[in-house]
Structure formats: structure tokens, C-alpha cells
């Protein structure tokens, strides 16, 4: 279905948990984040009902996210049921990779052929600092396993001045031998940490740095690029992508809505508005559920204003929505 600005909405980002086994400094404040009680989190059958309703409006791709989606029990069985829903053409998952070595095989068998893995440093100490205690070795083992089972891999790194900016070239170099898509994401000030302006490295600056060291060839964006502008280092097996939600937002081609693990449907990541789907999840309420999702799509804003007017968005943790 089209929204009121003529954008076709065919992609649902579904967060299945707000819990996470990491505490990334750009995603969560150091303290004050408490997980929701289990009773407040949608059951899998309720999530399936929402996705089934969304398919009647043209949703064809579902990305499972979180919190960390792999910490939720029963995730594989849920994915199998999701893959069996009529109308769903693609299921993807975004993960921090900590539990990936255990799950890669089952994920692939359940229908997840594409994986986005968040990895913000290739140095164990820096990785541990960014994630507040995470073990880089586990993520690398997870990536190795995902590769072995045949998954298509995208690596997401949030570029942050003074944190991992000295590693950007190392990340780019990964794409030379590996058929991965390595994506550089502009930091978004969602938790409004102090001096967030200082953290942001613009996509243009990232590109300028990469161009100084490599011959980058722009590629034509295809349906698998999502919000990233794609490039390839001459002769490389993989690609690079620049995602610029702040300096050059991609809202004009936005194709997505979101549903949080608490059943809040959001038309835009940065919008404070949400529609509570929980009262509409009864077996006989599918038409009401569809109407509510229609309303969400129709109410989608033209673009976010986080760069020009940070106060237009109340601070939030991406883990509560799914990024
Ligand atoms: N502002 C904004 N940022 C987004 C949006 N979707 C994803 N992002 C950010 O882009 C980064 C990559 O997100 P992913 O979960 O890998 O999803 P994606 O890039 O849409 O994935 P593909 O389906 O592979 O294109 C994360 O930092 C997200 O928070 C969006 O709609 N708006
Ligand atoms: C909220 S996480 C959920 C999935 C999983 N836990 C993970 O980290 O991949 C989804 C995405 O949001 C991104 N993200 C979180 N906070 C961000 C921020 N402030 N700026 C840019 N991206 C952010 C993460 O890097 C990750 O790629
Ligand atoms: S970015 Fe992902 S892994 Fe990091 S704290 Fe947020 S939800 Fe957890
Ligand atoms: S900020 Fe909102 S409108 Fe812009 S791309 Fe993200 S979800 Fe879409």
C-alpha cells in the first residue's frame, strides 16, 4: 500500500524483544534501562497475527530485530512459522552476533538467508568498551559460522569520532576478500548523550577517507541495498555501503513501518507517535487490526527532523524499537 506521500510500504521491522545481552554505548544509556516484564511482550502467535494482517496491505519483507532477537526463547520455531505465512517473500534478521555461532545453522534452515550483523570494532578492547563488556571472539565465531552455512552477510558499524574512527579503513578492507557488504552508519543521537554532535562523522567524511585510500566505484542501488549507498573497492569481492540518516536522510524512499515487542506500531523510527495494537489481537479482530495498520501507514511523516530539531524526537533507546 502507498502512504500519503506516494511511497510504497512493503517492509516491516518487527522487534521480538527489548532485552539484550550487550549494552552498546550509542544505543543505551549506561544506567536506567529496565527490561519489560514478560507479560508486556507480545506472544509469538500475536506477532504472527500482526504480520498476517500486514501482508494484506502489501508487506512482503519482515526484518526481525530487538533488543537482541537471538536471546528470545523459541525464536527458531517462530521464524519457521513466519516463513510459512502467505505473502512473505523475505525474512531477514539483525543481530549483534554474540549467539550466532549456536544459531546460524538453524536460522538458515528456518529461512533466514540474509543476516545483518552489528560490529563496531575489530579490536577486542574497543569492542568491549563500545558494548560494555562484549566478547569480540564470539561475534567473529558467529560470523564464521554464518558464512559457512551460506548466509549473505552485511556488517553494520556505527562510525563514531573518538571511538572507532581509526578503524574505518580496516573495516573497508574486509570487503576486499570477503563477499560481504560492509556498511558505515552515521551515529544517530537517539539517547542524546552529552556532546553527541562531536560523535557524528558524516557519510561525506567517511567517503572522503575511503576515497583517499581505495579506488571506490559507485554501484547502482538494488533492492538489497536498503538505505545504503553502495560502492565497491576496485576488484573487491564484497561491497561498501554508506548509510546517512543524519546528513542526507533517505526518508523520500522509505518503505517501512515498525512494530515493537510491546505491540506498538510506529510509522517512523524517529516519530514519537505509536498505535497500540494490543487491544486488536483477538482471533476475530483481524479487520480492525488491518485498519489500524492502514492508519499507521497513512500517518507516516514525510521525513524526520532529528538533525535540524533534535527536540522533535523524545530520546529513546533503539533497543526499545529495533533500530
Ligand atoms: N533513520 C533511519 N534509520 C534506519 C532505518 N532503517 C534502518 N535504519 C538504521 O540503519 C542501520 C542498518 O539497519 P539494518 O537493521 O541493518 O536494516 P536495513 O539497513 O534496513 O537492512 P536491509 O534490509 O539489509 O537494507 C541501523 O543503524 C538502523 O538503525 C530507517 O527507516 N530510518
Ligand atoms: C537496535 S539494534 C537491534 C538488533 C541487534 N541487537 C543489533 O545490534 O544488531 C539494530 C541496529 O540499530 C543500530 N543502532 C542502535 N543505536 C544506534 C544509533 N544511535 N545510531 C545508529 N545506529 C544505531 C545498531 O547498530 C544496529 O545495527
Ligand atoms: S545495538 Fe543491538 S546489541 Fe547493541 S545494545 Fe542495542 S540492541 Fe543491544
Ligand atoms: S526516519 Fe522515518 S521516514 Fe525517515 S527513513 Fe527512517 S523511518 Fe523512514
Automatic annotation (TrEMBL):
Domain Radical SAM core: 4-219
An example molecular function term from Gene Ontology annotations: GTP 3',8'-cyclase activity
Gene Ontology biological process terms, A to Z: Mo-molybdopterin cofactor biosynthetic process
Cofactor binding, per record: Binds 2 [4Fe-4S] clusters. Binds 1 [4Fe-4S] cluster coordinated with 3 cysteines and an exchangeable S-adenosyl-L-methionine and 1 [4Fe-4S] cluster coordinated with 3 cysteines and the GTP-derived substrate.
Key word Iron present: yes
Pathway annotation: Cofactor biosynthesis; molybdopterin biosynthesis
Reactions catalysed: GTP + AH2 + S-adenosyl-L-methionine = (8S)-3',8-cyclo-7,8-dihydroguanosine 5'-triphosphate + 5'-deoxyadenosine + L-methionine + A + H(+)
SUPFAM superfamilies given in the database record: Radical SAM enzymes (SSF102114)
Keywords of the record: 4Fe-4S, GTP-binding, Iron, Iron-sulfur, Lyase, Metal-binding, Molybdenum cofactor biosynthesis, Nucleotide-binding, S-adenosyl-L-methionine
Superkingdom of origin organism: Bacteria
Record-listed GTP binding positions: 13, 63, 94, 154, 256-258
Record-linked InterPro entries: Aldolase_TIM, Elp3/MiaA/NifB-like_rSAM, MoaA, MoaA-like, MoaA_NifB_PqqE_Fe-S-bd_CS, MoaA_twitch, MoCo_biosynth_MoaA/MoaC, rSAM
Function of the molecule: Catalyzes the cyclization of GTP to (8S)-3',8-cyclo-7,8-dihydroguanosine 5'-triphosphate.
Name the record gives this protein: GTP 3',8-cyclase
Amino acid at each position: 500500500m502507498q502512504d500519503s506521500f506516494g511511497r510504497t510500504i512493503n517492509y516491516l521491522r518487527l522487534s521480538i524483544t527489548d532485552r539484550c545481552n550487550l549494552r552498546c554505548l550509542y544505543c543505551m544509556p549506561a544506567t536506567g534501562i529496565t527490561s519489560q516484564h514478560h507479560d508486556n511482550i507480545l506472544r509469538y502467535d500475536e506477532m504472527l497475527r500482526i504480520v498476517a494482517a500486514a501482508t494484506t496491505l502489501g508487506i512482503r519483507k519482515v526484518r526481525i530485530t530487538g533488543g537482541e532477537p537471538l536471546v528470545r526463547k523459541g525464536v527458531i520455531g517462530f521464524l519457521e512459522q513466519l516463513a510459512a505465512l502467505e505473502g512473505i517473500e523475505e525474512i531477514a534478521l539483525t543481530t549483534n552476533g554474540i549467539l550466532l555461532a549456536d544459531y546460524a545453522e538453524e536460522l538458515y534452515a528456518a529461512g533466514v538467508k540474509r543476516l545483518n550483523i552489528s560490529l563496531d570494532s575489530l579490536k577486542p578492547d574497543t569492542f568491549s568498551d563500545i558494548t560494555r563488556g562484549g566478547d569480540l571472539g564470539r561475534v567473529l565465531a558467529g560470523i564464521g559460522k554464518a558464512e559457512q552455512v551460506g548466509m549473505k552477510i552485511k556488517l553494520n558499524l556505527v562510525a563514531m569520532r573518538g571511538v572507532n574512527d581509526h578503524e574505518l579503513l580496516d573495516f573497508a578492507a574486509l570487503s576486499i576478500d570477503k563477499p560481504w557488504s560492509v556498511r558505515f552508519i552515521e551515529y544517530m543521537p537517539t539517547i542524546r548523550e552529552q556532546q553527541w554532535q562531536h560523535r557524528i562523522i558524516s557519510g561525506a567524511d567517511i567517503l572522503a577517507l575511503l576515497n583517499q585510500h581505495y579506488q571506490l566505484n559507485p554501484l547502482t542501488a538494488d533492492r538489497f541495498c536498503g538505505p545504503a549507498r553502495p560502492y565497491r573497492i576496485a576488484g573487491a569481492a564484497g561491497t561498501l555501503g554508506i548509510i546517512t540518516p543524519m546528513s542526507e536522510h533517505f526518508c523520500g524512499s522509505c518503505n517501512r513501518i515498525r512494530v515493537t515487542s510491546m505491540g506498538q506500531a510506529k510509522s517512523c523510527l524517529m516519530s514519537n507517535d505509536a498505535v497500540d495494537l494490543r487491544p486488536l489481537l483477538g482471533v476475530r479482530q483481524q479487520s480492525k487490526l488491518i485498519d489500524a495498520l492502514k492508519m499507521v501507514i497513512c500517518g507516516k511523516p514525510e521525513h524526520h527532523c532529528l538533525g535540524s530539531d533534535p527536540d522533535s524526537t523524545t530520546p529513546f533507546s533503539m533497543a526499545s524499537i529495533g533500530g
